[in-house]
Design a protein that fits this description.
The protein contains three helices and nine strands, in the order H-E-E-E-E-E-H-E-E-E-E-H. It has 251 residues and is mainly beta. Keywords: Membrane, Transmembrane, Transmembrane helix.
Length: 251
């Protein structure tokens, strides 16, 4: 489904008939401030080349610390920068041919680690749809990109764990998950797929979805293809396969 479509100083002394001036020179040391690293802070004193006020901690130290990783991070702002060519969808550095029965157009902002996304959807029943789409992979700022293989499996697992996508279905289980190396239009990548089974009192045509996530290393950066097809609706299953086979770099 697309499925259902965050030090004061003292005064100088003066005597009668005599004039004495006392100079007091205070040579101070300043405390050097070191940037924080994850889990530890280790400031140490260093000599200042000139006298002056003691250095104060930076107000932005906490911003310099590495962020905590979110397992299913999504960009705070959706930014659609690509334009679809005729009869094709384009997102990031990937394109696909639009299957005939996939007439609805939406973004794919619900998918973790994606931006510049677009998808095509085909109605199944009720508010359930099959979808195919492409997007730019955008990893969480401050967190090192784990590579295309890890990204493909993470994005799929995040789709499965996002309960709001799957409506009132219960007993959801991901079966046959596997990740394999692939080549798309000469570009290397990884494909993660699986079958999500579920129970539903309202759906009659399907009780499982075929999920596929392909992350490809394109000249425009990591990009992703995502499909979700209603198993049991043969037209949608074939259309999702057709869309995957049509994947290419930018035309």
């Amino acid at each position: 489904m697309t499925p259902r479509l965050p030090t004061g100083s003292r005064p100088v002394l003066a005597g009668v008939g005599a004039f004495v001036v006392v100079f007091v020179l205070i040579v101070g040391g300043t405390l050097g401030v070191h940037a924080l690293t994850v889990g530890r802070s280790s400031p140490s004193p260093t000599a200042s080349p000139t006298s002056g006020p003691t250095a104060t901690p930076s107000e932005t130290e906490s911003e310099d610390a590495a962020q905590d990783e979110e397992w299913c991070w999504t960009p705070t702002r959706f930014d659609r920068t690509s334009t679809n060519p005729p009869d094709r969808l384009r997102g990031g550095g990937l394109e696909l041919e639009i299957p005939d029965v996939f007439n609805d157009r939406r973004d794919m902002s619900y998918a973790a680690f994606t931006n510049d996304s677009v998808l095509a959807a085909a109605h199944v029943e009720e508010d359930w749809s099959s979808t195919v789409g492409v997007a730019k992979v955008e990893w969480q700022p401050g967190i090192e990109y784990p590579g295309d293989k890890e990204a493909s499996s993470r994005i799929l697992d995040c789709l499965v764990s996002k309960s709001s996508l799957w409506g009132d279905t219960t007993g959801r289980e991901l079966e046959d998950e596997k990740t394999t190396e692939v080549t798309v239009d000469g570009m290397k990548g990884y494909r993660t797929s699986g079958k999500l089974t579920f129970d539903s009192s309202s759906l009659k045509k399907t009780s499982a979805s075929g999920l596929t996530v392909i992350v490809v290393d394109t000249p425009e950066g990591p990009s992703v293809f995502v499909s979700e097809s209603a198993i049991g609706v043969e037209e949608h299953e074939k259309a999702a396969e057709q869309a995957e086979n049509s994947l290419s770099g930018l035309t």
